[in-house]
C-alpha cells in the first residue's frame, strides 16, 4: 500500500487487524476524525472515506466515489458545486480548490494535486503551461523557496532540494522518489543512510510515530515505511 500503515497510523488506532487494508492513504475503518463507521469494507478509494471525510459531510451516498483524494461533490471548503460528475482528477477540484480561486476555466486541468496556475500561496506565475508534475509547483511551492531554476524538477510531491522544513541538503540530485526526501523529512530525522525503502509515501525507517527500526536500507519507495511503526506500542 502506499500511504498508510495497515496496523497503526497517525492517531494510535486500536485496530486488532487491518490485514485486508489495501487502500492507500486511509484506514478503511477509522481515519483522522474518529468516524463512527460500522463498516467500510468496500472502501477502495485511496485518500478519503467515501462517505465521511474531514469536514463532516452530509452525504447520503457516495457509492460511486472512485476518485482518490477528494469528494467529487464536496471537499474541504464547502464548495457550492451543483455537479462535479466528471470530476476524475485525483487531489483537486478542477474548478475550485482550497483558496477560493477565481478561475473562469480549468477545463484542461489534468494534473493531480495542484492548480497548474494558482496553488496555495497565491503564486505570481505568468505561465505554468508545462506544469506536469503532480503535487508541487516546479518553481515555487509552499515555503516561498528561492530557487533560480528547478527545470528538472520531475518528482511529484517535493522539491528535490528544499521542502517544508528548510532542509540543509547540499545535493539531492538523485532524488527521484515522489513525496519525501530520502534522507530528511518532516520530523528532523537523523538518518545516516536510507538505501532500501520500497514503499511509497514515507521514510523507510522513521516517520510520524518515531518508529524504532534498526535498518531499512534501500529507500526507493514513495511515501511510506516499508515496515514501519509496529514498534511504537
Written description of the protein model:
This protein has 233 residues and is low in regular secondary structure. It contains no helices and no strands. The chain is flat and about 50 Å long. The N terminus and C terminus are likely disordered.
Give a brief outline of the structure.
The protein is 0% helix and 0% strand.
CA distance, first residue to last residue: 21 Å
Overall average pLDDT: 32
Quote the beta fraction: under 5%
Instruction: Kindly state the number of beta strands.
Output: 0
**Helix tally?**
0
Fraction of residues in H or I helices: under 10%
Low-confidence stretches: 1-233
| Coarse structural class | little secondary structure
Q: Give the overall silhouette.
A: flat
Characterize the largest beta sheet: strand count, sense, and whether it forms a barrel.
none
- What Rg is obtained from the alpha carbons, in whole angstroms? 18 Å
